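Support request from a user on the community tier.

User writes: "When I paste my structure tokens into the form, the page sometimes reloads and wipes my input. The last time it worked, I copied everything first. Here is what I submitted, just in case something in the input itself triggers the reload:"
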């Protein structure tokens, strides 16, 4: 894998020491052996697999790009394939590529990254809205069937959504107005989510993301 120099092992060692971890603790946390960590840090091994890189990165709580590149020198130029670019550009390349893609493969990857990120962001917003709704559900002790209506983009006008707003209104008119606004935001986000997942699938993504039921904590 591309990196800016032979300092991968030194960077891993430096971040390990900053975290107060011994080589054995890092090895255990990454699911590797002590000798593997020692060989990497001593420069006897520089050909990490992607799985090993991610495991060490996770154990150190450091982005993979900070291990691959000397991010303290963002304007240093390095060789990446046929290009000479700065380390700052190289870190962006890991997730977004280098400029507008020219090949069919590059265009597909860019679309998958774009729409996949849109799907994730929409789901995050939807989950936050649903969490907020629980405050109002607790006022009446039940969601009155709202959970079944949240799978689509009509919760604000669904009978369950209307019933919950009316029930909350009997306790707090101002709270019912806030709940109604949350339901409307939820429906707008569900429509955004639907557009994003269909675009993602059209680009060749996993059709499983079409299921609204997948929008659950920790998905």
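"...and here is what came back when it finally went through:"
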């Amino acid at each position: 894998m591309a990196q800016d120099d032979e300092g991968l092992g030194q960077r891993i060692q430096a971040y390990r020491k900053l975290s107060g971890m011994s080589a054995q603790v890092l090895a255990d946390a990454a699911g590797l052996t002590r000798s593997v960590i020692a060989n990497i840090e001593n420069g006897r091994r520089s050909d990490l697999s992607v799985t090993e890189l991610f495991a060490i990165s996770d154990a150190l709580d450091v982005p993979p790009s900070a291990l691959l590149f000397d991010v303290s020198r963002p304007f240093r130029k390095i060789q990446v394939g046929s290009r000479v670019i700065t380390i700052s550009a190289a870190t962006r390349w890991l997730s977004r590529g280098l400029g507008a893609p020219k090949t069919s493969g590059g265009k597909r990857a860019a679309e998958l990254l774009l729409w996949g990120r849109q799907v994730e962001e929409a789901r995050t917003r939807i989950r936050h809205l649903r969490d907020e709704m629980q405050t109002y559900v607790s006022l009446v002790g039940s969601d009155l069937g709202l959970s079944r209506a949240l799978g689509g983009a009509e919760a604000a006008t669904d009978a369950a959504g209307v019933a919950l707003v009316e029930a909350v209104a009997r306790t707090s008119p101002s709270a019912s107005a806030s709940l109604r606004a949350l339901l409307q935001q939820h429906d707008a986000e569900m429509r955004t989510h639907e557009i994003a997942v269909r675009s993602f699938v059209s680009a060749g993504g996993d059709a499983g993301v079409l299921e609204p039921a997948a929008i659950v904590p920790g998905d």
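Agent notes: The reload is a front-end session timeout and is unrelated to the input. The mean pLDDT is 88. The CA atoms of residues 96 and 110 lie 7 Å apart. Escalated to web team.
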